[in-house]
Amino acid sequence: METLEKPILKWDINIQPWSFVTLTLYSDDIDELALHLQKKLAQAPKFFKNTPIVLAFGEDKDCIEIGIMQKILSILERYELHLSGCSGPDSWVPSVADFFNIPYLTQKDAVAHHSSLKSQTIGEPLRAGQQFYATEDVIALAKTHSGSEVISQGNIHAYARAQGRLLAGVNGDHTSRIFCQALDTELLSIAGIFMTKSQIPPEYLGKQCMAYLENGKIIIQLIQKDLV
């Protein structure tokens, strides 16, 4: 009988509105999965480290054994890929997600995460006294130095050390968030609500963090801390 060969995994990298990588699983072969991850991560060993992962299952997959899922989680942990959610058929994935205490993303959520929101990129270091303003999301690929200022009407993604002032949702958008690869900012602001560096708990400084509003206050969360 002729069979159609499928890929083991499909990789999708999303940077807005929330930074994460989606892995769509096509095979239950654990050895194949481990080998694929080893080869993929060898190409960019630091890029995916401590990156939130959403594990997705296609509509043609009707189940997955608990033992297989446990092995998949172990492989992801081995390569420091942190599972933050899973997505797939509503008929069975929610129960698997509940069993492993993993957030479940509905198909609608998954599509929303891949929305085509515009963004602007900072490709060069932002020096003291410089200001960058955007009416959309900002992606800072270079260091923002002390005394600099990034102002965005949307989210801010800082993939290098952030030492300046980061102001998101300046048009009053309380859903805006700030993501930092290495949090070291003089000031964080979301929708006009501020937090200075002296107010940031020391355990978050220099770490990969997310800042968001909750009940009118800025909450800082270690991204890797709360991922399964």
Structural description of this entry:
Mean pLDDT is 78; it is low at 1-6, 11-19 and 110-117. This protein folds into 2 domains: 9-113, ACT domain (Alpha-Beta Plaits, 2-Layer Sandwich), CATH 3.30.70; 119-222, Pectate Lyase C-like (3 Solenoid). It has helices at 30-43, 66-78, 93-99, 107-113; strands at residues 9-14, 20-25, 52-57, 82-87, 104-105, 119-122, 131-134, 137-140, 149-152, 156-162, 165-168, 178-183, 187-190, 193-196, 209-214, 217-222. With 228 residues, it is α/β, with parallel strands linked by helices. The chain has a 6-stranded mixed β-sheet with strand order 6-8-10-12-15-16, with no helix packed on it. Strands 1-2-3-4-5 form a 5-stranded mixed β-sheet. α1 (30-43) links the parallel β2 (20-25) and β3. The protein has 4 helices and 16 strands.
Percent of residues in beta strands: 25-35%
Rough outline: elongated
- The termini sit apart by 40 Å
Poorly predicted spans = 1-6, 11-19, 110-117
Helices and strands in order:
Layout: E1 9-14, E2 20-25, H1 30-43, E3 52-57, H2 66-78, E4 82-87, H3 93-99, E5 104-105, H4 107-113, E6 119-122, E7 131-134, E8 137-140, E9 149-152, E10 156-162, E11 165-168, E12 178-183, E13 187-190, E14 193-196, E15 209-214, E16 217-222
Parallel strand pairs: 2-3, 3-4, 4-5, 6-8, 7-9, 8-10, 9-11, 10-12, 11-13
Antiparallel strand pairs: 1-2, 12-15, 13-14, 15-16
